[in-house]
Amino acid sequence: WLKLLLKELPPGMRRLIILNSQVLSVDSLFFKHPDFAVNVRPKNQLVKTTYMNLLLCLIKTLDKPPHSITDTELSNAHSELIELTGAAGFKLDWLKTKLDAISLERKKENADGSRVRKFEEQIHNLKAELNKEKTKSVTSSAKVLSLEQTVSDLKAELNKEKLESDTHAAKVVSLEQTLSDLKDELNKEKGKSDTYADKVVLLEQTLSDLKDELNNEKGKSDTYADKVVSLEQTLSDLRGKQNKNKNKNKKRKLSRK
Hints:
This is MATH domain-containing protein. This protein is mostly helical. The chain has a domain of 90 residues. Helices cover 84% and strands 0% of the residues. It contains five helices and no strands.
């Protein structure tokens, strides 16, 4: 079968060194693409064999599921295809079409994978944010309960203050009435006070006049006192003289007797 295969190959490829494990692959290749090696350039059979082995490896790589081909294998496949079509002269349009399709699919997969990773990252971030918000929500809920209790307490205290305020309001009304009455009474007293003030001014003026008059009278009194003292002294002197005269007269009468 190997001899038969080599006879069916193009003249430039009949002296290839083909391994038994490669027979089926080579047979299938020439059956599907009989003219791919028509324009092969190398003349050396070892070089031709090397290129054939490279082509078979490339075909084997591209026959793998696209998702299992690594980026390195895909990059090497492009380089190998360029070498096989350029240096070796193989006609591999069909293989280039397949490689382009795989590359396009990989790009889509990479794009989809990138989008998936992006979405997964967004989902992860959203979950983390959601958990954070849940924690905040629990804390906020506790705060709300605390605030509601505080509001309830304040309402109760407000109602209590309103009751006390009503009592205070009644007291205020009473005190305001008392204050009004006191103001009226004060105004009356002020009226009286003004009258008393006028009387006081008048009395003070009278008192001042009396003091002046008293001082004048005191001056007169001092003069009169001096006169009285003088008169009393004169009277005393006269009485003394009178007594002397009486004594003299008594003595005279006694002497006459």
